[in-house]
Amino acid sequence: MVNESIQAPTQVTLEKNGAQTPGKAAEAPVGRSSATERDPSTSDKFNFWLSPEVIVNPFDIVQVGQVAPDNKASKTYGLVTTLEHRTDAPNHLANFISSNFGSLAEEPNTPRQGTTIAKVNVLSNNANVYMPVPNERVVTFADANGIEEALGIDQMELKNRVPAGLISMSNGASAVAYIDRRYVLGPESAHINISGISGLATKTSYAMFIIQSILQKADDPTKIAVIIMNVKQADLLHIDERGPDLPPEEKEKWEKLGLEPKPFEPGKVHYFLPRSKDGIQPNSFFPPSIYTTYAYDLEATADKLDLLFSDVSDPSGTMESIIGDIMIGLQGGQADFKAVRSWMTLLYGPPLFDPTAKKTVRLGDHLGSSVGKFRRHLRRLVHTRQTGIFVESRAINEKVLSAEIGKIKGGHVYVVDIAKLADAEQTLVFGDLLKTVYALKAEAPEEGEEEVPDKIIFFVDELNKYAPSGAKTSPISEQVLDIAERGRSLGVILVSAQQFMSAVHSRVTGNAATKVLGRSGSAEVLQPDYKFLDDDLKLNVTRLNKGELLLSHAIYRQPVKVVFPKPAYRQQQA
Fold first, then answer.
1. Are residues 246 and 309 in the same domain?
2. Which of 99, 166, 216, 331 is deepest in the core (most CB within 10 A)?
3. 555 falls within a domain
């Protein structure tokens, strides 16, 4: 009788009490809610048993009839988190014995009665009723409108909707997962953080997709500028060039999302590549045809010297003090530093070094041994182990990166390549950009200067290098934390990615209103950073396929699984 009730024609309708309402055809039922003495329904969770022929998977969104005020019908929406198959066997030994004591050649002597149980986390109720779902209510898949209602998307204004991926259900239905622009670009909240195993989570591709989605759906894209850090090969050095024609299924994804599969607008993408040691070709993988070379002489680095030493161990704070005094001396034009005009004169001339005696000397209250330690590190960073970006004097075609970014325009994209730089050099460049952007947004433009874009989106991968977890901070991590905590009010939006969320400072990830997870290891998802995930969902994260992501957004009650289309721009070439 149970199976017959589920296989009945789809004209099953909901009444006033949540069971049937005459005249409204419902979706094909997949099962009925089930509450037991030991496993009751609650205001946050409920279970349902499945008809034998039905396929349901974790992350499917279902709906069930519920009672509402004035005895009117309402719908409770839920997210399937896990599935269990239960039988009337008291234990596994009973199943073994029923198969003639483990004979694989014979059918079991005692047929077991069993069913699959789906466990569901409540997402929402369209009448704001959070009474527990009663027993034996018909459960169906949610349709596209139901999914929007379940996630709260229906409450978003159309102008604030940003497509963030497609939700695909086990019954073949799909819906667009929109995120609210006010929680991405402000003023309500901001920032997007993406985590997942390298190569499987497609973090960079998703970041570029969401940036394109923001730009294509913006009321006025000329008020938004984008700065992108290229950290892997030539991944992002041809984003204004059209790639090979996309397969039909990828084009269909773009179409369902209401977006156009196209590269970033040619003529509005600017590439900045680091100088190489020979100064002829840039230090870059497969450079684009048009680019600007950047380099750092002492003058261009004097106000950010502390960023270059971010990775140097300094438990006593001595190095920090020395660097601070040198920065003040260089920028203030103090008498002792009048003759210091280049890296070599800083290293091998006064006030740090006595060329006559050929030895390191005291600097103010700092001992010669401490100054010597500074010189050794500086010599390693800018001379013996550098990749070419540090120069005694810049050639005409070698620009100061902060000066070029200072001319930032809305509607334009700026790609800064750091893929072949040493770690300390990458930290310097990233910190230089953050410092420049922060200053632009924090200070009002002077008369005659161009207006700074309302929003500046900053994308960086491998964020754990710059803001690692733990209480200890460095000059670069302080910059990142400041952007994470105050960027929303200034209009600086951080789109960041890393393999392990637990490796990033919790104040950075905690301030991200949107978190995106690709496949992650079981040990990783058990870290405290993943407390926002249900325990059952944590296990599902470990088996996400490539291109599948878990999307947690400020207005969603539960994360949802999404897929997104491949980019239309030209990707890395060998």
1. no
2. 166
3. yes
Q: How many structural domains are present in the chain?
A: 3
Q: Is residue 225 a part of any domain in this protein?
A: yes
What is the C-alpha radius of gyration for the chain, rounded to an integer number of angstroms? 30
Q: Are 329 and 309 contained in the same domain?
A: yes
**E strands of 245-372, at which residues?**
269-274, 292-294, 353-354, 359-360
Residue 572 domain-assigned (yes or no): no
Q: What single string gives the DSSP state of each residue in 208-256?
A: HHHHHHHHHT-S-GGGEEEEEEE-STTTTS-TTSB-SPPPHHHHHHHHH
Q: What is the mean pLDDT of each run of 10 residues along the chain (574 residues)?
A: 38 37 55 94 96 92 88 90 92 86 81 91 92 94 93 94 96 93 94 89 91 96 96 93 95 96 96 95 94 96 93 88 94 88 95 92 91 95 95 95 95 97 96 94 71 95 92 87 93 96 95 95 92 89 92 94 95 63
Distance CA 176, CA 549 (A): 14
- Are the C-beta atoms of 317 and 475 separated by less than 8 Å? no
Encoded amino acid at 413, one letter? V
User: Does residue 180 share a domain with residue 261?
Assistant: yes
Give the span between the Cα atoms of 298 and 474, in whole angstroms.
Answer: 21
- Written as one string, the DSSP assignment of 111-165 is PPPEEEEEEEEEEEETT---PPPPTT-EEEE--HHHHHHHHTGGGS-GGGEEEEE
Q: Which of 462, 463, 445 is nearest to 454 (CA)?
A: 445
Residue range(s) defining the domain that contains residue 411:
176-295+394-563
CA distance 521 to 519: 7
DSSP 66: E
* SS3 call for 540: helix
User: Does residue 150 lie within any of the structural domains?
Assistant: no
- Dump the DSSP string for 5-47: HHSS-S---B-TTSSB-TT-PPPPEEEEEE--SSS---SSEEE
Q: What angle do CA 329, 335, 339 make, to 5 degrees?
A: 85
Question: Domain holding 546: CATH number?
Answer: 3.40.50.300
